[in-house]
Design a protein that fits this description.
The chain is mostly beta strands. Helices cover 0% and strands 54% of the residues.
Length: 115
């Protein structure tokens, strides 16, 4: 059974940091591109960060460049999203996704940036 379990969300003040984790199981984690996608209320889902298997170079949405860092630990089958200098507009439910042709989605974790 494929599982992607995201965790680490919460309430944080503007300028604060959070680290999201996503533990994967049930598929060949190291062979899948891994992404973090977010969805704010009333908005469509948008890609935030992606880490491919081909070259492992990360790609980021422009608005998070320099603030967010995606990484993966292949030994732990886990992908991370370090989020620094958080802004209110980062408030959303964050999902991790594994893709290799087909896409696997996990349940989201809520991030709320508010004073």
């Amino acid at each position: 059974e494929v599982q992607l379990q995201a965790s680490g969300g919460g309430l944080v003040q503007p300028g604060g940091s959070l680290r999201l984790s996503c533990a994967a199981s049930g598929f060949m984690f190291s062979r899948y591109a891994m992404s973090w996608v977010r969805q704010a209320p009333g908005e469509e889902r948008e890609g935030v960060a992606c880490l491919s298997t081909a070259n492992n170079y990360p790609n980021y949405k422009d608005s998070v460049k320099g603030r967010f860092t995606i990484s993966r630990d292949k030994a732990k089958n886990t992908v991370y999203l370090q989020m620094n200098s958080l802004k209110s507009e980062d408030t959303a439910t964050y999902y991790c996704m594994g893709r290799r042709g087909i896409a696997y989605w996990g349940k989201g974790t809520q991030v709320t940036v508010s004073s």
